[in-house]
Amino acid sequence: MKTIASLSIIAALSLTAHAEWEVIFNGKDFTNFGGAGKTELNGYVVKDGMIESTPKCSNLVTEKDYADYVLELEFQLTPGANNGLGIHYPGTGNPAFAGMELQILDTGYKGKLTDVQYHGSLYSLVAAKRGHLKPAGEWNVQRVTCVGPRVKVELNGVVILDANLDEVNKAHPKHEGAKRRSGKICFAGHKDVIRVRKMQIAKASSVEKTKK
Q: Is the predicted pLDDT of residue 2 greater than 90, yes or no?
């Protein structure tokens, strides 16, 4: 008997097959990150069809700005690894504050954490549900939906974050990034090793059509 989580993943894959997706990472180089033909950029390398961060990693940023989208990717963590998925990033400054950062963090991270620092959380703003991240070394499937003020994160078929940025703005009026509704996507490196593959994006409206 299939679990609810596995059925959710199957449903998501079915939607993926029919939506109008744009590949962000082609498995060969950093074309969409400002490095066409390059296999090493800002402390990240392309290796065996994956993006792999190194202890020298900083920010790896898309060339394009995106709004009202669904982003899908698979990622693998090493023990204790810390990184971040920047959204609505203007391209300069700290992604966590100039834009917003969705935590990418192994459960074995040794530092002291607050609720808004665990994996999937909107860093410093909204906490994500815990308990759905696979152990280090296993692949996770993540879907991020950004439409207007809504930011939703699904991890391995489970919704772990569903935030309303209008409400966030009321609670955190000084956070400039939370006021944004579009921008670049980036990986915000913290000198740890993670791996990413199968990264693609689609207009949210395109994905919604497949549900009807």
A: no
pLDDT of the residue at 19? 72
Of 82, 56, 111, 61, whose CA–CA distance to 194 is shortest? 82
3 state DSSP class of 82: strand
Domain spans of the chain, in order of start = 4-209
Copy the structure tokens of residue 208. 């919604």
Query: Do the beta carbons of residue 176 and residue 42 sit within 8 Å?
Result: no
7 vs 59, residue with greater confidence: 59
DSSP per residue, 98-129: HSEEEEEE-TT--S---GGGSTT-BTTTBPPP
Q: How confident is the model at residue 210 (pLDDT cuts 50, 70, 90)?
A: low
Retrieve residue 85's tokens: 């998925």
| Spatial separation of the C-alpha atoms in residues 121 and 111, rounded to whole Å | 16
* Domain 4-209 fold: Jelly Rolls (2.60.120)
pTM score: 0.89
Give the span between the Cα atoms of 198 and 188, in whole angstroms. 18
Q: Which residues does 70 contact at the CB level (< 8 Å), separation at least 6?
A: 19, 143, 144, 145, 201, 202, 203, 204, 207
